Structures are given as C-alpha cells and as structure tokens.
Amino acid sequence: MRRSVEITLTAEERETLGVWARARSLPARQVLRARLVLMAAEGQRNATIADKLSIDPVTVWRWRKRFLAERLVGLERERPGRGPKPTKRRHWAQTIVRVTLDTTPPNATHWSVRTLADHLGLDKSMVQRVWKAHNLQPHRVETFKLSRDPQFIEKLIDVVGLYLRPPEHALVLCVDEKSQIQALDRTQPGLPLKRGRCGTRTHDYVRHGTTTLFAALELAEGKLIGKCFQRHRHQEWLAFLKLIDRQTPAELDLHLIADNYATHKHPKVQAWLARHPRVHMHFIPTSSAWLNLIERWFREIITKRIRHGAFHSVPALEQAIYRYIDAHNDDPKPLVWTADLADILPRIIRAHETLQTVQSS
C-alpha cells in the first residue's frame, strides 16, 4: 500500500490551482491534476481522491509525488509517453511533406487532409499530425505586394522621417479617402447577442447607395478631420484640403502624407498648393499603403462601426460615421510609428530577393 504523502500549499499555489480547477479552456488533464492536488492538500487519502475523481489510486500517488518534486511546473509539463514509438509516422513523414510541398491534386489547387490521405493510402489523422509537426497549412494563403516604385527608398526615408522626427512648428497628417462605403440594410431584423449565442443577421441585404469618407489623422494628438462626399474626384479632394486648411492653426505648416492616387496630383490641386505654401505633400511609394497610418484608422471604423451595422440610407450611414469621428476626437489616441529604417529596409531587400528567386526558378 502506497502511503498518502502530505502536501502543503503556499497562498499563491492555492490560488493558481483554484483557477486551474475551475477553468474551461485548459486541457482536461491539467484541470484534473489541479483538483487532485487541492484535495490532497485538504488531507484526503489517495483512495478517497481516486473514488471522487474516478481514477486509479496509483495515479493519485504519482501526481502527489510529482507535485512535491516539481510543484506547479510538474502539473503543466507533459512527459514523453512510454508506449511504442510512432515508427510508421516517421517512415511516412518525409513523403507526406514532400508531396504536400511539391505537388498538387489534379482537380484542386492544394491538398486537404483527406485528399492527401486517400492519395497515399494513409489515415487522415497521420497526415494531420505530420502537418502540425511541420507547421504546414496548405489551405491558408497570405497576401503581399512589393512596391516597384523607382523612388521607393527616397519616399520611404521621407515618410518614416516625418513619423519618427516630425518637424517643429508643424503638423503631420496622414490623409486618404475610403471610397465605396456601402449603406447596407438587412432584409429582416436579426436576433441580439445573448449568453451562449452570438448575434444573428440575414445573409442577404439591400443596397442603399455608397459614400466616400475623406479623412486626415493628425499624428501628434491623434485627432481626426473627416468629411463624406458622394464622389472622390479632384474636386472633392480639393474641397477636403480646404477643410484641413480651415480647421488647423494658420501659423503651423502642414505636412500631408498621401498615396499616389491621380486626383491627389491634379493640375488644379497643384495650383491650389502653390498658393498655399504652408501645405507640403509627401507621397508614399506605390503599393505601400502600410506606410500610411490613416489606413489603420480606416480598419478601425470599418470593423467597429460599419461592418456589423445596418443602414437604411446613405445619410444614416454618414451620420454613423460622423458620430464615430466625434467619439474618437473626444478621447483621441495617436498611432505611434515604431519601426526604424534599419528594421524596414532589410526585410524589403529579403522580400525582393525571394521574389526574384521564385520568378527565376
């Protein structure tokens, strides 16, 4: 008979074990171990704990012993099993990886667990384990775009320099337009969010038109200037520049960071800029929207206010946008650029080298 060794817990260990024992997201085996140790710390015998938890008394004795030797770390860490080694998986792993990387099925763009298992005559769980061990996910594709702007380096240095070392007696603003924002309404009312069930909405919708949001994010304080227009021509862009000019202190220079959209360089816009020398335009390289911080704010308003909303008209959509802007300006939080050129340039160079290697192969 194995004797029940005494366990004494510190206050911190008791609190941690209590959290583990009540957790719903931790592995079931870790929750079981936490409950076992807590019951042991109360002075319960191995047989009593085993009966309450429906496990073998030897298991209780082993986890008591491991906890005394390793404390909380011993309950989290898994030791390698003592059963037979997966020799079949080791034999097939190289083949599974090679077929996954170098071939495609005749009627699809990538292998799935089941199609590859059928192709090789294996069990799908083996393919799944090999993919997990080698971090292979054929169903996932990430997007990218490398700029081919011949002045990429010069523009990058200019924009990042404004972010990291903004000029004195000046405001730096990231400006752009978010076009084709749709006023979508649902065909039937959805059910609200409740405990144990997410909110619902119909899969179909009614289009009530679109609007374009012109926005300028001030770098230092994070305040935003926004205006909705029905179109996004050079006339609307010029009207927005005039709005920025009116709503910013006249004694400060304005450095506007924008993309290379044609309306931003229209002759009438250039003429207006020539008459307003305090406004300086800085254009990011082509295909480099990640350099413009206003894009990050656009994602915020789309995900938090527009995507899940229902709007019965374009004016209703624009009112929602303006309310979101007002709430943002009541408690502005600036977006801080932290990446230096020493971090960005090596990654861009490696990406171009990789792309050239793929194209030449």
Written description of the protein model:
There is one protein chain. The protein has 14 helices and five strands. It is α/β, with parallel strands linked by helices and 361 residues long. The longest helix is centred in the last third of the chain and has 20 residues, at 341-360. Strands 3-2-1-4-5 form a five-stranded mixed beta sheet, with helices on both faces. It is 48% helix and 13% strand. The termini are far apart. It folds into three domains: 11-76; 87-133; 158-344, Nucleotidyltransferase, domain 5, CATH 3.30.420. The model has no long low-confidence stretch (mean pLDDT 90). The chain has helices spanning 11-22, 28-41, 46-53, 57-70, 72-76, 87-102, 113-120, 124-133, 152-164, 234-247, 267-275, 294-306, 314-330, 341-360; strands at 170-186, 205-218, 224-229, 253-258, 279-283. Helix 1 packs across helix 2, helix 3 packs across helix 4 (57-70) and helix 7 (113-120) crosses helix 8.
Radius of gyration: 30 Å
Strand content: 5-15%
Helix content: 40-55%
The poorly predicted ranges are: none
Distance between the termini: 69 Å
- CATH architecture of the largest domain, please? 2-Layer Sandwich
Q: Give me the secondary-structure category.
A: alpha/beta
CATH evolutionary superfamily of the largest domain: Ribonuclease H-like superfamily/Ribonuclease H
CATH class identity of the largest domain: Alpha Beta
What is the third-level CATH name, the topology of the largest domain? Nucleotidyltransferase, domain 5
